[in-house]
Automatic annotation (TrEMBL):
It comes from Kribbella italica. Pfam families: BPD_transp_1 (PF00528). This is Multiple sugar transport system permease protein. The keyword Transmembrane helix applies. SUPFAM superfamilies: MetI-like.
Length: 307
């Protein structure tokens, strides 16, 4: 015996879907309102401010905000200090991000290894630096870098070496060491979580085929968690272009960090000087560069991961 289901008329489907549609919009509305108020409106306001400049009719005359078009963008891109800050951050990210992700990957693989004991302790120990506020971490490392207080200098001074880790030649890499110390454990935790999702059957099958621990790590674990590694890389690229707290705090102990050392510090300096249009234009340039680099990197690596 077979049964047939009568088709539901279109009018009945519309009547049935109307309450569901209203319920969906009811749940979505709070999010959409918050998204528009706290995300889209600020972005639109920054773009709007970047098109305006400040003019005075005389030295002590009232301030007038006038439309200047793209003049602020031309001024930002023509500012040598701002452009050098972008280049400095590009060099920083080109060296620091791969080193940090390599350290995080090695730590995650070690914690996932069956040969390592006290994994909970080491997992927490590696993650603790991320829980330290960035300003506190920068102050702490500033004291460690200070030549008169640094334990590194106390170790190397008897050998005739007295390096200044706050000098202009090495301050960028001193900050890189600080950022690596802070975020390596955070990235490690993302990779370690991805490793925990791999079925143990794969490892047993590989061992039956004679694979060593190193071969399992390189040929099975790393390819499977590649999407997680790409994700941490994108996060790191975004964080690099937004680097602000660490160099800003380190500027209190090092004269090598200027008010335009990084693009975000340069934008902050302009806004502090009430040059809101130029500061907004710099912020938009940083945002566009962040989006473009993140999308390009994500697309390039996605092809390799999926390939």
């Amino acid at each position: 015996m077979t049964t047939t289901t009568a088709p539901i008329p279109a009018a009945a489907r519309r009547r049935g879907s109307a309450p569901s549609t209203r319920a969906a919009w009811g749940f979505l509305t709070p999010f959409l309102v918050g998204f528009a108020v706290f995300y889209l409106v600020p972005i639109g306001y920054v773009i709007y401010k970047s098109l305006y400049g400040v003019r005075r009719s005389s030295t002590f005359g009232p301030i007038q905000e006038v439309f200047v078009g793209l003049a602020n963008y031309r001024s930002a891109l023509g500012d040598g200090d701002f452009v050098r800050g972008i280049g400095r951050i590009a060099l920083f990210g080109f060296v620091q991000v791969p080193v940090m992700l390599l350290i995080a990957l090695v730590l995650a693989l070690l914690l996932d290894s069956a040969r390592i004991r006290f994994t909970r302790f080491f997992r927490l120990a590696f993650f603790v630096p991320y829980a330290v506020p960035g300003a506190i971490a920068a102050i702490m490392w500033g004291f460690l870098y200070a030549p008169s207080l640094s334990p590194f200098n106390q170790l190397t001074r008897p050998l005739g070496a007295d390096p200044d880790l706050l000098s202009a030649d090495v301050i960028l890499w001193s900050i890189a060491n600080l950022v690596t110390w802070t975020y390596a454990g955070y990235n490690m935790l993302i990779m370690y979580s991805a490793l925990q999702a791999i079925p143990a059957d794969l490892y047993e099958a590989a061992r039956i085929d004679g694979a060593s621990d190193l071969q399992i790590a390189w040929r099975i674990k790393v390819p499977i968690i590649a999407p997680a590694v790409v994700l941490t890389a994108v996060f790191s690229i975004i964080g690099t272009l937004q680097l602000f707290t660490e160099p800003q705090v380190m500027a209190t102990v090092s004269t090598a960090i200027s008010s335009s050392y990084t693009p975000t510090i340069a934008a902050y300096a302009q806004i502090s000087a009430q040059n809101y249009g130029l500061g907004a234009a710099m912020s938009v340039i940083i945002t566009v560069a962040t989006v473009v680099l993140s999308v390009v990197f994500f697309r390039l690596t996605r092809k390799r991961v999926e390939g």
